[in-house]
């Protein structure tokens, strides 16, 4: 058995690992069919503003070309654009090539098979057939679950349920959170995931959570404008996380009733970047309008792009006109310098938060 020492931190052994994989493939005489209609597997998928559904597909056989009618899980469409691992536009991809594909009707699940068909109509029919089959299975599961609840509640004296709605930046994270949440259990409380999808928290997500009395777990995403308004109106509990284990720990504490204090990130303000200026002293300065709450100089911040977290850090400077200030409130313009980060762009949002310690009383 080949064994290679590697380090993700220093990069040690990566070249040796690649050489070993090539050697093993030669010894096993692994070959792929390079001609004909392409087939592959979905590695990841996400929703991007202005681009729509973007799916990373690894081609396993044949050639994937622009304009091909593609079926991936329950999603379908024509390949409108493809980019390779370097972000360069390509017109075709062969075996062992990963490409980011635009043109699908939605975000397929990681692990779904991708297949090129003769025309888009056939791809659409197959996708709709798969979707109807999935709905039938879900409906059967929901009905059986209700019947099982009748007996389990009688036996366990009204077992409580904690409903959770999951929103994540990519499909893989949503699936990982869903699987991990479903495995959490307690003698008196059952965790039930009512939905898991990618993208920002929308008003419809909040409405669903309110109707189901669910908690929303948002992983590396934030609520959009309508979603924030809906949260204020309904009072739905939305928890924002950047680490999966922190989300799991909070849910564990909730279902076990642990009374130990917990530390939680509380969002106190949101500023929208209107323009970016260059400062010889501080580097790039983001000209912002505070649209909610307040921004404080000493609080940690996150940079959001399309409601997705792209950087976490702290402020280098906070200025109002030419004066340094300690705090800027909603409706006020200001200049924000982000420490050790120069990629802020107009349209980004800067989220200011503080870590608060909450005593558990129930």
Structure, described:
The relative contact order is 0.09. The protein has helices spanning 14-27, 120-155, 171-183, 203-212, 225-234, 244-256; strands at 39-48, 52-61, 64-65, 69-72, 75-83, 92-93, 98-104, 113-117, 160-168, 189-198, 215-219, 238-241, 262-279, 283-296, 300-305, 308-320, 323-324, 327-329, 333-338, 349-358. α4 (203-212) runs parallel beside α5 (225-234). 27% of the residues lie in helices and 41% in strands. The chain has 362 residues and is an alpha+beta fold. It is built from six helices and 20 strands.
Calculate Rg over CA atoms.
24 Å
Spell out the helices and strands N to C: HEEEEEEEEHEHEHEHEHEEEEEEEE
- Estimate what percentage of residues fall within beta strands: 35-45%
Dominant shape:
globular
Mean pLDDT equals 85
* Uncertain residue segments: 144-151
For the report, how would you describe the main beta sheet?
6 strands, antiparallel, barrel
Provide the structure class.
alpha+beta
Please report the distance between the alpha carbons of the first and last residues. Answer: 53 Å
Strand order of the largest sheet: 1-2-7-5-4-8
Helix share bin: 25-40%
Number of strands: 20
């Amino acid at each position: 058995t080949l064994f290679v020492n590697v380090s993700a931190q220093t990069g040690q052994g990566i070249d040796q690992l690649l050489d070993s994989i090539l050697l093993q493939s030669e010894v096993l005489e692994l070959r792929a069919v390079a001609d004909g209609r392409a087939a592959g597997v979905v590695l990841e998928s996400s929703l991007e503003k202005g681009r729509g559904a973007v799916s990373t597909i690894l081609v396993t056989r044949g050639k994937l070309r622009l304009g091909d009618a593609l079926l991936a899980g329950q999603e379908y469409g024509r390949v409108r654009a493809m980019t390779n691992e370097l972000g360069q536009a390509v017109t075709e991809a062969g075996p062992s090539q990963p490409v980011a594909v635009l043109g699908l009707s939605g975000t397929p699940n990681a692990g779904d098979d991708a297949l090129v068909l003769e025309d888009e109509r056939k791809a659409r029919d197959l996708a709709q057939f798969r979707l109807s089959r999935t709905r039938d299975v879900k409906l059967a599961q929901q009905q059986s679950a209700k019947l099982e609840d009748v007996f389990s509640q009688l036996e366990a004296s009204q077992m409580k349920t904690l409903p959770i709605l999951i929103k994540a930046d990519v499909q893989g994270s949503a699936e990982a959170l869903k699987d991990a949440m479903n495995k959490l259990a307690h003698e008196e409380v059952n965790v039930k995931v009512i939905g898991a999808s990618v993208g920002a928290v929308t008003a419809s997500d909040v409405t669903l959570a309110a109707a189901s009395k669910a908690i929303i777990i948002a992983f590396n995403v934030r609520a959009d404008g309508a979603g924030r308004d809906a949260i204020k109106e309904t009072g739905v509990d939305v928890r924002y996380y950047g680490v999966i284990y922190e989300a799991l720990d909070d849910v564990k504490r909730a279902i076990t009733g642990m009374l130990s204090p917990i530390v939680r990130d509380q969002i106190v303000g949101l500023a929208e970047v209107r323009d970016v200026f260059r400062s010889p002293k501080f580097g790039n300065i983001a000209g912002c309008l505070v649209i909610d709450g307040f921004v404080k100089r000493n609080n940690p911040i996150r940079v959001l792009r399309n409601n997705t977290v792209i950087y976490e850090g702290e402020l280098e400077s906070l200025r109002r006109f030419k004066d340094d200030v300690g705090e800027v409130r909603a409706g006020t313009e200001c200049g924000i310098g982000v420490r050790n980060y120069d990629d802020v762009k107009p349209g980004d949002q800067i989220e200011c938060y503080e870590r608060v310690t909450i005593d558990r009383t129930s």
